[in-house]
Design goal:
Length: 626
Amino acid sequence: MNWIWYPGDFEIYHGMLQNFQREERGYGWPAYWKMDDWRKNVCFSRDYELERDSRFVVHAQGVGYVAVDGRKYSFERDITCPAGKHKIEIYVGNMAALPCACVEGDVIHSTPEWMADDFRECRAVGYSPLYTEAEPNPNQIPWRYVPCKPVSKREVNGGVLFDFGRMINGSLKIITGDKAQTVTVAYGESEAEALDLKWCYYKEENTVDGMWLRKRAFRYVYIPEGSTETMDCEAVHEEFPLEVRASFHCDDALLNRIWDISVETFRLCSGLFFIDGIKRDRWIWSGDAYQSYFVNQYLFFDEEINKRTIRALRGNTEITQHLNTIVDYSMLWVIGLENHYWMTGDADFLAEMYPKLEAMMALLMKQTNELGFIYGRERDWIYIDWAEMDKDGVLCAEQILLWKCCRVMDDCGKVLGKPDAGWADKAAMLKANILHYFWNEEKQAFIDTYESGRNNVTRHANIFAILFGLVEADKTEAILDHVLLNDAIPAITTPYFKFFELDMWGKLGRLDIIWEALHTYWGGMVEKGAVTFWEQYDPTCTGKEHYAMYGDPFGKSLCHAWSASPIYLIGRYFLGVKPLEPGYTRYDVAPHVEFFKELHCVVPIRNGSVRIDKENGRVNIQASRE
């Protein structure tokens, strides 16, 4: 038995709720891009041929009725169908939430074989393994609730500062023992933020004893009046039921700590969907999600959260605006769909998404020039990275992503047996033009854009060219010499693009560079006392400077999904586990044990796991299927 809905609407509905959760200094901040709507009325149906009389009952979220061969019944009523052929229809309307239904019965019950009709198109129903009983229903998220107490409290500046010792994503209750007293509560991911009553992101005034406050993210709580004798608090942390299937322990204590903090960071940013961070945005960003798919593969190996996030980002089939308004994020959605197929081998999901894939590519190709280069339109955001680059003209990094998208379309079409749509030819033409217009022989590198005439070189397009396989060995060597190993070219500073950079180094076999980055970049945050990894880390910053971003003294997220990439880098490159065919029907295990004196780890694969141990100079590898 499953709760059923119109396919994709569960993710669209809950994705909209997720993207409305952002709060800043007392006001709500809904996402600023176009969000698709879910269907408000749906008809679910299935034909049965019964060998005997059968009873069933229909639960639904919304108003409506059940029709058996045209005869109408109310929800929650026992209905008996005699032996023979019958058509069961369930009409559900809901203006405020997701219209959905659940049919309980021995023979007649809701399964993926039912159909959903929005009165324009009839398709196989949507469903989820999260909802296989009457309770909870799909308008409720099955959170796990974890009670938490502060690990310390102390008096500061006439008030009380509480430290929970970890990041909390949940609700807080203040305990004063005096129902008549009202107090102010300031939250912070850092101690400095909680103590700054003017600039802290979250602050609640006029709270009273025993009041549960709205869900927020914090480690520290400051009450500016009172004492440790009179003030206390407790919290309930909400976490989504995702199973950590990986483990890692080695002789390097710092690397173990980096792994553990990465796991904590990623768990916090993984709920019904992958979100960017728990304090500031709480939004579903396509670029952040793209990297989360890779981390998920080496930590949870949860196929459903990938699918929920992919569906939520994309919305309905028709599309007029880029995901999150960002052109490169639309293209990363396309590439991410192929990566999900390689992880899972799920051709059914690929077939489900293919019409939306085609519509996305139509939008992308609509805004290309005579050379096939994609450009930004009014209200589009050309992002790539928070970095200084020449964006005066069509951008090389965008064209490489578009070339990769054309390759993905060709590959996906072959998997699904689609007629040749000429995507390979489009990719070949685009590659030729990229090399002709963006490759600078004098600089032996790809320039940002040729239209400005400045011939500026940054690392980004050059990293993409190697990572996605645009260039052959000769140009790869040139890029290494003139760009990537050239200190005169500005370094990558964000964990977001560092993911692409280190992934590229891994594919080139330069694990020494990844090893150094893990210990210096992520190790630097560990030395600063991080309990989760930050949106950005600059070792030259001091004190409160570490928390500033976007012109805001506490604008930086200190728990950000894209900073959990050590999980992927360790699992994919140091432990050497990767699929050789979609869905791990064939896979490779080639650990680089030379980096470790001792190693004990488990890497998930589809329907199984790989265990790698090194002890006393001996290496043991065991693979198992569930």
